[in-house]
Design a protein that fits this description.
This is ABC-2 type transport system ATP-binding protein. One of its GO terms (cellular component) is plasma membrane. It is a peripheral membrane protein. One of its GO terms (molecular function) is ATP binding. The protein has two domains: 161 residues, Rossmann fold (3-Layer(aba) Sandwich); 66 residues, no CATH class. It has a six-stranded mixed β-sheet, with helices on both faces. It is built from nine helices and ten strands. With 251 residues, it is of the alpha/beta class. Helix content is 35%, strand content 24%. The structure holds adenosine-5'-triphosphate (ATP). Adenosine-5'-triphosphate (ATP) binds next to strand 2 and helix 1.
């Protein structure tokens, strides 16, 4: 077991964002977390990666408690956080150099890995430009590269495919599959049910801060598409009523 989440709880004032989540993620798998907007996915992943302190519960990464032994646990993790807060006044190459060096890699290793990552993410031509000038998808890719540079056992990726073009998505999927094939583990959140269905081994459906269903994608789908099952668990689609004024054009 690479990641074990036990009884995680987080409250923000009167809002309970995460209401007691338990999950287990096995090595060599891709685990998808899906849920409606505001369900608590980012809050959960932030607690898993040591960015946000839980009110209750534990997170164990490769045997180390994230909150009791943060240095040990974090060494084994690569993180793509929500709302990327990058040092974007650095060039892509500088950002990767900073990330790798911070993770204890030698200069030679960082330089070699930067070249490999730039090629894999099709960012060769962008390496010498400021990250602040990157497009949304390019920013996502450089952040993903920075999360991987120290070859962690576990990658925790919040919406890794958001704003990423289809060719780059296929590329990233290929990179993640090979990483998992070699024994790595990925936990990711996404709103793309097709993608989750295609690439994940296991999935958890989180609604209102609680896991409503989890298991293999097959088990959770129950013979339907994951999207149909998701909409059912999330309480059904909203009826688009009450917007009649939108159909009476003002001109
Ligand atoms: N720092 C904060 N202060 C107050 N409330 C917060 C904070 N962070 C999250 N919340 C609330 O916690 C709940 C869960 O938010 P979270 O960002 O975890 O949802 P999510 O599942 O990632 O949503 P989305 O799919 O829209 O990204 C929401 O009601 C949100 O408003």
């Amino acid at each position: 077991m690479v990641l074990k989440i036990e009884g995680l709880v987080k409250r923000f004032g009167a809002t309970t964002a995460v209401a007691g989540i338990d999950l287990s993620v096995h090595a060599g798998t891709i685990f998808g977390i899906v849920g409606p907007n505001g369900a608590g996915k980012t809050t959960t992943l932030s607690m898993v990666t040591g960015l946000l302190k839980p009110d209750d519960g534990r997170v164990i990464v490769h045997g180390a408690d994230v909150w009791a032994k943060p240095a040990v646990a974090k060494r084994n993790m690569g993180v793509l956080p929500d709302r990327l807060r990058l040092f974007d006044r650095l060039t892509g190459a500088q950002l990767l150099f900073y990330s790798g060096t911070l993770r204890g890699l030698s200069r030679a290793a960082v330089v070699a890995r930067t070249a490999d990552l730039a090629r894999a993410f099709a960012l060769d031509d962008a390496l010498d430009r400021l990250v602040s000038d990157y497009s949304a998808g390019m920013t996502k890719k450089i952040a993903l590269a920075a999360a991987m540079i120290h070859s962690p056992r576990l990658l925790v990726l919040d919406e890794p495919f958001e704003s990423v073009d289809p060719v780059s998505s296929a590329n990233i999927i290929d990179i993640l599959r090979r990483y998992v094939g070699a024994g790595g583990t990925v936990v990711l959140s996404s709103h793309s049910m097709d993608l989750i269905e295609r690439i994940c081994d296991d999935v958890a459906v989180v609604v209102n801060g609680a896991v409503l269903d989890t298991g293999t994608v097959e088990q959770v789908r129950q013979g339907r598409t994951l999207e149909e099952r998701f909409v059912q668990l999330a309480g059904g689609a909203n009826k688009a009523e009450g917007l009649e004024w939108l159909h009476n054009f003002s001109d």
